[in-house]
């Protein structure tokens, strides 16, 4: 998942708390609950993975637009992927997708080099700050995908081993993406404690139908965001301020494959696409995701300008392509 699952507007609890609608967003941003990930917090709940040493601390500001962690009705998921109940499941298509995921095209792609640290050291002032925020948010969003896919892989093992294995392999990809972003944070002497985040953060519940809409959109949006940034920086190398963007071309292919898998999943559940209620819901999701993305990006124009992009044009391009 890329800047994925940024569907906070759809969180009923959040919308209730901030019932001032979209106009209330700047206020919501200020009245944040601070979620602290620090060296002391890490000591209280050590993660299983060793990871980079925490040489600093970083905080995620929990706002209406912060990337969230998701959970779903796993029993319903098991019913949906039971081939005896659902005759629409195209097992041959899932077998083919599984082979593609097993190929693991990006196994050796995410290798760092000394350019990263040097580029981070050159960054100063507001750009440095906005870059750190970009890395934190992206890492959280990727990690959110990892957690959800990992659990789906675990829960669907008995019902549909092929679909389950694809979920597990997608969680492999997302863990790689999150890990790479977290290593980026280490260039700024920071690290997100992902083990602690897993335990301490609240999870937002979505029914399977909404998980499908949300993840499909997130993956496709992620693909278009990454490839657009990559192509822009290739054409305008003077804005290449940090080498992580050079990895986006192959990286976004992971997101594209994830999106294709969700497309196959949705085809196997035509009830989520075909009746008038489903059509309304999917349109509502589309609109909500686009609005959330746009609001998020508008709050971070400094980041997009820092890499030579016009935020509005960038978002319009991504929305049109998706
Ligand atoms: Fe990802
Ligand atoms: Fe993904």
Automatic annotation (TrEMBL):
Identify the residues that the record assigns to the Rubrerythrin diiron-binding domain, covering every copy.
Answer: 133-266
Required cofactor(s)? Fe cation
Q: Its Gene Ontology biological processes?
A: chlorophyll biosynthetic process; photosynthesis
Report the source organism: Zea mays (Maize)
Q: What is its EC number?
A: 1.14.13.81
Give the record's family classification. Answer: Belongs to the AcsF family.
One of the entry's Gene Ontology molecular-function terms is: magnesium-protoporphyrin IX monomethyl ester (oxidative) cyclase activity
Q: Which reaction does it catalyse?
A: Mg-protoporphyrin IX 13-monomethyl ester + 3 NADPH + 3 O2 + 2 H(+) = 3,8-divinyl protochlorophyllide a + 3 NADP(+) + 5 H2O
Q: Which UniProt keywords apply?
A: Chlorophyll biosynthesis, Iron, Metal-binding, NADP, Oxidoreductase, Photosynthesis
Q: What is this protein called?
A: magnesium-protoporphyrin IX monomethyl ester (oxidative) cyclase
Q: Which PANTHER family match?
A: MAGNESIUM-PROTOPORPHYRIN IX MONOMETHYL ESTER [OXIDATIVE] CYCLASE, CHLOROPLASTIC
Q: Which Pfam families does the UniProt entry name for this protein?
A: Rubrerythrin
According to its UniProt record, this protein's enzyme class is oxidoreductase
InterPro entries associated with the record:
AcsF (IPR008434), Ferritin-like_SF (IPR009078), Rr_diiron-bd_dom (IPR003251)
Q: Give the record's pathway.
A: Porphyrin-containing compound metabolism; chlorophyll biosynthesis
């Amino acid at each position: 998942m890329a800047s994925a699952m940024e569907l906070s507007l759809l969180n009923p609890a959040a919308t209730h708390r901030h019932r001032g609608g979209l106009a209330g967003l700047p206020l919501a941003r200020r009245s944040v609950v601070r979620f602290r990930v620090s060296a002391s917090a890490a000591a209280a709940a050590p993660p299983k993975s060793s990871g980079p040493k925490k040489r600093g601390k970083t905080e995620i500001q929990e706002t209406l637009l912060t990337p969230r962690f998701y959970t779903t009705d796993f029993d319903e998921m098991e019913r949906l992927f039971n081939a005896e109940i659902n005759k629409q499941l195209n097992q041959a298509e899932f077998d083919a997708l599984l082979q593609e995921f097993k190929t693991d095209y990006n196994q050796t792609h995410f290798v760092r080099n000394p350019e990263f640290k040097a580029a981070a050291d050159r960054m100063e002032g507001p750009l440095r700050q906005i870059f750190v925020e970009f890395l934190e948010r992206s890492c959280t969003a990727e990690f959110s995908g990892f957690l959800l896919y990992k659990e789906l892989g675990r829960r669907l093992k008995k019902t549909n081993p092929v679909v389950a294995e694809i979920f597990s392999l997608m969680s492999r990809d997302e863990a790689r993406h999150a890990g790479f972003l977290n290593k980026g944070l280490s260039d700024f002497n920071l690290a997100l404690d992902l083990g602690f985040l897993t335990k301490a953060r609240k999870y937002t519940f979505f029914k399977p139908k909404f998980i499908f809409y949300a993840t499909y959109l997130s993956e496709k949006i992620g693909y278009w965001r990454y490839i657009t940034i990559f192509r822009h920086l290739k054409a305008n190398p003077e804005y290449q301020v940090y080498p992580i963007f050079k990895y986006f071309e192959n990286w976004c292919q992971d997101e594209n494959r994830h999106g294709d898998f969700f497309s196959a999943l949705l085809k196997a559940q035509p009830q989520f696409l075909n009746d008038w209620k489903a059509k309304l819901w999917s349109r509502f999701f589309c609109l909500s995701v686009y609005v959330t993305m746009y609001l998020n990006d508008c709050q971070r124009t400094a980041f997009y300008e820092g890499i030579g992009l016009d935020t509005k044009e960038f978002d319009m391009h991504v929305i049109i392509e998706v």
